[in-house]
Amino acid sequence: MSWEQTQTLVTITLAFLVSMASAAAEPVRVLLVHGSPVPSGLDATLKAKLADAGFVTRTARYEQLSQPLLAAFHVVVVMQEPAYGQSFVGEPEREGFRQRAPLLLKFVENGGGLYV
Predict the structure, then answer these.
(1) Quick check: is 21 in a domain?
(2) 87 near 100, Cβ under 8 Å?
(3) Strand 98-100 relative to strand 75-78, pairing
(4) Which of 7, 57, 58, 115 is the most buried (most CB within 10 A)?
(5) CATH number of the domain that 105 lies in?
(6) Quick one: pLDDT at residue 93?
(7) pTM
(8) Tens-binned pLDDT, residue by residue, of the chain (116 aa)
């Protein structure tokens, strides 16, 4: 899928969320997730469009994902696939090892919206 198609899909999906947001007391919080480097389509224009529509947006890289971060948002939009072999869904265990925990799956199971 091209970047233009992806942006169109995101715009349509977020437009649907506007109707949900209008009924909600608080604005919809959207997290835009990307890898490194930042994709060219994730620019100030997209963030401005989302802000104009009433969304509260933030961007984060895969390696910044954590359960507390995800819990602060209603919707996570995956803007760019991670590089092959990149670990982005890990949480440190008490023993210090990295456990592969499906953070995005937990986010969806807890009622969050995920758009890829």
Answers:
(1) no
(2) yes
(3) unpaired
(4) 57
(5) 3.40.50
(6) 46
(7) 0.65
(8) 566 666 666 666 666 666 565 556 778 888 888 777 776 666 677 788 888 878 888 988 887 888 889 889 888 887 776 655 555 554 444 444 344 446 777 777 777 766 65
Is residue 20 situated within a structural domain? no
**Nearest partner of 59 among 34, 86, 89, judged by Cα:** 34
Rounded distance, CA 66 to CA 56, Å?
A: 19
For residue 94, what are the domain limits?
Answer: 3-13+28-115
The span from the CA of 17 to the CA of 38, in Å, is 25
Query: How far, in Å, CA of 52 to CA of 44, rounded?
Result: 12
The answer to whether residue 85 sits within a structural domain is: yes
Helix (H, G, I), strand (E, B) or coil at 68: helix
Say how far apart CA 78 and CA 60 lie, in whole Å: 10
The token pair at 89 is 């869904």
Evaluate the CA torsion angle 60, 28, 48, 7 in order and state its sign: positive
- Give the three-state DSSP class for 45: helix
Is the distance from CB of 32 to CB of 57 less than 8 angstroms? yes
